[in-house]
Amino acid sequence: MAESDTPTPPRLLPSAIHQAVKPGTALLRLETTRSRAGVLDGAWWPRSRDIAGELPALVTALTEHVGPITRVGLDATAWRGIPTRLVIDGRVVHLDSFPVGDDTVLVTRGDNDHFSLLVVPPDTSADAARTAMARAVHADNITEAAQILIATVPD
């Protein structure tokens, strides 16, 4: 068997991915198990609702750990000025509008591997954001994104 015929195992994010980052960069957590049995696969805390300004950092972080991202689906009512595509790190990423709500973003790796991420509102306090993100990435989480935010993010 040629080396190129050997299947590449799926890459997982290291458990240490949730770390302090400088303001203005993406803060991201993903479930670190292979099961992906929970409702959500991860969480993202953007700093604004400007998708063209926020999405590149998310896609760069995801690509580094799970491979190239091809599509991102989000709710047009939650973001300012959604283009149909962005070029991020030299790759075209297509953006699709779905009525998923302002609390969720759908990310596609390859052709059919989808991730569902909780979106923590930009103005959320650091403590509330960390709590919501930790709950979202728990391996056996069965709570929808909206319910996590209601329970952890004060009005």
Task: Please outline the helices and strands.
Blueprint: E1 27-30, E2 42-45, H1 51-66, E3 69-74, E4 85-88, E5 91-97, E6 104-109, E7 113-119, H2 126-136, H3 145-152
Parallel strand pairs: 2-7, 3-5
Antiparallel strand pairs: 1-2, 3-6, 4-5, 6-7
Helix pairs in contact: 2-3
Description:
Strand 4 and strand 5 form a beta hairpin. The termini are far apart. With 155 residues, the protein is of the alpha/beta class. Helix 2 runs antiparallel to helix 3. The chain is built from 3 helices and 7 strands, in the order ββαβββββαα.
* Helix count, DSSP H or I runs of 4 or more residues: 3
- Secondary-structure-based class equals alpha/beta
Number of strands: 7
Q: In sequence order, what are the helices and strands, one letter per element?
A: EEHEEEEEHH
Uncertain segments: 12-25
Brief account:
With 155 residues, the chain is of the alpha/beta class.
Key words describing this protein structure:
155 residues, alpha/beta
